[in-house]
UniProtKB/TrEMBL annotation:
Residues 113-134 form the C2H2-type domain. Keywords: Membrane, Signal, Transmembrane, Transmembrane helix. Residues 1-28 form the signal peptide. The keyword RNA-binding does not apply. This is C2H2-type domain-containing protein. It comes from Urochloa decumbens. The lineage of its organism: Eukaryota, Viridiplantae, Streptophyta, Embryophyta, Tracheophyta. The chain crosses the membrane at residues 235-256.
Length: 281
């Protein structure tokens, strides 16, 4: 009886120990499961912690930068002028600049993403791809939407947007002119020393004539009167074409002239020989 009681007690002790170990294991698994679930929730939330809607037109931002690059930057580069950091016309202040620089254009129907090398048939599909797949590369901080400057930079003209003929909105023209003049003040400040102020004043005057004077209801005022990069390229292209056309024509005229000269010399010699033969008789 004592042996049976001892065996029973040992079995009960073993059962209690195994049950307690199972409970500890279950609790540890529950703790691990909780931490794993919490970790997974954090991972799921992380991609959305810094996402925010972009309320900036990519198309109009592109038009604004095209106006800057075509009608301002050639003159800035020529004088080696550095736009100040507070100037909103600097390329680094364009939130889409990095994505635009990663566009690879092989052919009219072949656009590639410079980040993942995916191919698209048109630029608009590549823009949608940037919006869907590479939105995290945008720095959507304040003051980086170039489309906000379209009123000053004549984006509609750059986009070849044909407005219906209507009466000029004097209030809108005045707002755009004020925006344009504020850009001139911030990009070409005149309170930085005598020599710098002269240069800044020249650039400010240029910017006012190039961009701001056209913001008026006077139909005679047109934007970009100083010309730009494309006009210069077209001039050189026309000059090259004209040279290619006139140069062969010049050589042809020289060749024909030399041939006529040789023919005239030969005729003169023949006539002289004929005259010499007739003379003895």
């Amino acid at each position: 009886m004592l042996r049976c009681a001892g065996r029973l007690a040992s079995l009960l002790l073993a059962a209690l120990l195994s049950a307690s170990s199972l409970i500890l294991v279950a609790e540890s698994h529950e703790d691990q499961g909780f931490h794993g679930a919490a970790g997974s929730r954090i991972l799921l939330q992380d991609p959305h912690q810094h996402t925010h809607d972009v309320h900036c037109s990519r198309e109009r931002s592109r038009a604004a930068w095209e106006a800057i690059d075509e009608y301002l930057m050639p003159f800035v580069e020529k004088e080696k002028y550095e736009l100040p950091s507070k100037c909103r016309l600097r390329p680094v202040n364009d939130m889409f600049r990095e994505q635009e620089q990663h566009k690879i254009h092989f052919d009219i129907n072949d656009w590639r993403c410079g980040f993942c090398k995916k191919a698209f048939r048109a630029e608009k599909f590549l823009d949608q791809h940037f919006e869907n797949r590479h939105k995290n590369l945008l720095d959507n901080s304040e003051g980086r939407c170039m489309a906000d400057l379209c009123g000053a930079l004549h984006c509609d003209l750059m986009m070849e947007f044909k407005k219906p003929k209507s009466k000029c909105n004097a209030a809108a023209a005045l707002r755009n002119r004020h925006l344009c003049e504020s850009l001139a003040d911030s990009c070409f400040p005149i309170n930085q020393g005598l020599a710098a102020s002269r240069l800044h004043a020249c650039f400010a005057e240029f910017f006012l004539r190039q961009f701001c004077d056209a913001h008026t209801c006077n139909r005679g005022a047109k934007p970009f009167p100083k010309g730009g990069r494309k006009q210069t390229n077209r001039f050189y292209l026309a000059l090259c074409v004209l040279t290619l056309i006139l140069l062969p024509l010049f050589y042809l005229i020289v060749f024909l002239h030399q041939r006529e000269m040789k023919k005239g010399v030969q005729d003169l010699r023949r006539f002289s020989k004929i005259g010499q033969k007739k003379k003895p008789s």
